[in-house]
Amino acid sequence: MHNFxxxxxxxxxxxxxALIRGMIxxxxxxxxxxxxxxxxxxxxxxxxxxxxxxxxxxAAALAASCPVLILAVKPQIMDKVLGxxxxxxxxxxxxxxxxxxxxxxxxxxxxxxxxxxxxxMPNTPALVLAGASALSPNSRATxxxxxxxxxxxxAVGMCVExxxxxxxxxxxxxxxxxxxxxxxxxxxxxxGVLAGLPRDTAEKLVLQTVYGAAKLAIxxxxxxxxxxxxxxxxxxxxxxxxxxxxxxxFRGAIMTAVxxxxxxxxxxxx
Length: 270
What we know:
By secondary structure, the chain is an alpha/beta fold. About 55% of the residues lie in helices and about 15% in strands.
């Protein structure tokens, strides 16, 4: 679906760039329909050169050109950004925020409670168009707005809709989850080395194994427990390894990590 909207990005950092790449790559909109306000001139030049998007000077120019705005800035500068955009936005704008830990009430306070706002929690695999994003609308956002946001974030992976109080759980799970997976990958590689494999060989095998297991789970649609049962033959190697993980409290540790990260997210959002 081409040229369905002119989209303005406030901030052209890593996640902003991932969204640009995804929107163009999926054919959602043409590069010329994406505008960016990025104060770092080198960064802005890179985005223009690499993708053909249009850098604009300021809030007034972006708001005048784009009915859909994506706030892709660090949470620390959000107050300043909201202040700069407030006077330029109307009821015709849809505002999407991907800033972690900034609640809808803060966005409404900064932009006006009459604004259509959707808060999104993406994760870093969006950089390779394999992200997991959760979307949460405010009371003014329409069904059409949500369809727009779903299309944008489906361009960089998959997305689900949740009520805003659940975004802390999403942050602890899929937001922080890549960190847990990278630690698991690192540990598996070390395990391969401990068992005698050269490190580069162990790394290749582990990365493909983790990728393959996730792909199999997605494409087969079968529960993880069923898939686990299939690799676990009686008295075999896998069940022996699983017993060690169970005795080490592996499952409980992962659950507690997600819960702790969700609690931290809640605390940061206060």
